[in-house]
Amino acid sequence: MTVNPEILQPGPKMEVDYKKCNTPMTCKKCLELCPQAVFAVDTIKYIKFTETDINEPDAYKIIPRHSDKCSGCMDCIKVCPQDAINIDFKGVNTA
Ligand code: SF4
Ligand code: SF4
After folding, report:
1. What confidence tier does 11 reach under pLDDT thresholds 50, 70, 90?
2. 21 CB within 6 A, ligand 2
3. What is the spatial distance between Cα 20 and Cα 3, in angstroms, rounded to a whole number?
């Protein structure tokens, strides 16, 4: 069976540059602004019985977990102070 990757593409390809965004919990602008709730935060560093420090680099990561829900408004790109978000709509089936 031949699979058309464009049909399987559920949404745009989204990437966050973690060199530019390494303390997302001190910012959260994309999280708060996205009307489609595309973004989520993962805790990367766990220490038992200790709250993870929001100022520690790479302790948390912004994940575009629901990129299939992205409407393409581009507001997250405009609001990101680090220019860390990249969205590529190539190959998205908009029919
Ligand atoms: S482009 Fe708009 S809908 Fe898509 S992730 Fe960014 S803010 Fe959300
Ligand atoms: S707006 Fe940019 S810098 Fe702020 S949390 Fe989102 S990706 Fe990181």
Report:
1. confident
2. yes
3. 36
Domain membership flag for residue 89:
no
Domain presence at residue 74: yes
On the question of pLDDT at 5 being above 60, the answer is: no
The structure tokens listed for 42 are 């993962």
Whether pTM exceeds 0.90: no
Structural domain count, the chain? 1
**Range of 54's domain?**
18-84
Closest CA to 41 of 59, 68, 67, 56: 59
Specify if 11 maps to a domain.
Answer: no
Ligand 1 mutation target, pool 33, 70, 78, 88, most atoms within 8 A of CB: 70
pLDDT (0 to 100) of residue 92: 75
Decide: 27 in ligand 2 pocket, CB within 6 A: yes
